[in-house]
Automatic annotation (TrEMBL):
Protein species of origin: Leucopsar rothschildi (Bali myna)
Keywords, ordered alphabetically: Cell cycle, Nucleus
Record localization: Nucleus
A Pfam family that the UniProt record links to this protein: TIMELESS
Biological process according to GO: DNA repair; DNA replication checkpoint signaling; replication fork arrest
Gene expressing this chain: Timeless_0
Chief location: nucleus
Protein name from the UniProt record: TIM protein
Keyword check for Nucleus: yes
Domain of life: Eukaryota
Length: 183
């Protein structure tokens, strides 16, 4: 609902939901619980964040943080976002975005460059194999069994793919019938 159409109960409900999310994220990690998990296992905090992502709550928080008309929730959203990043240091977050991605990007760039060089070499090799000028001469073919003027066979000067559409009238101008003689 737009903020103009909201009732007082709706505003209180939104605030209570934001406070509930904040309080859930504010729960400190239990060291005993964290020790029982496997090394690569996600912590309770990470699983809560994943549940928020699956439910779409992170998109709602982004909307509340960026919408101009929803500024009354800005401090609640800021507090929730700070609790989301509670266990991470800024250095880890910055390295996370560039560490593996930067190495993969460099590797992908090298791989694309080698593929591009190989493709250019193949293109040059194909260009050297074919003649440089295109011959428009498609060949001449003698159609045996089909007589032309006199007793000679028809000589066909077009490509073989045009043979099926051959008629004796090919290339002739159709005879025009005057308009007053047309049927």
């Amino acid at each position: 609902q737009d903020w103009e159409q909201r009732q007082e109960e709706d505003t209180l409900l939104i605030e209570r939901i934001l406070l509930l999310v904040r309080n859930v994220l504010h729960v400190p990690p239990d060291p005993a619980e964290e020790q029982h998990g496997v090394d690569g296992d996600a912590s309770v905090h990470d699983r809560v964040l994943w549940a928020l992502h699956i439910s779409g709550m992170d998109d709602l928080l982004k909307f509340l943080a960026s919408a101009q008309v929803e500024q009354q929730w800005a401090l609640h959203v800021l507090e929730i976002i700070s609790l989301m990043f509670r266990d991470q240091s800024p250095e880890e977050l910055a390295a996370l975005g560039q560490g593996t991605a930067g190495a993969e990007h460099g590797e992908d760039t090298r791989e694309l460059e080698t593929l591009r060089q190989r493709e250019l070499a193949e293109k040059r090799a194909r260009a050297l194999q074919r003649p440089s000028r295109h011959s428009r001469f498609g060949g001449s073919y003698v159609l045996q069994g089909l007589k032309s003027i006199g007793d000679r066979d028809v000589v066909f000067h077009k490509g073989l793919h045009n043979l099926k559409s051959y008629t004796h009238d090919l290339g002739k101008e159709p005879r025009r019938v005057p308009r007053h003689r047309q049927a």
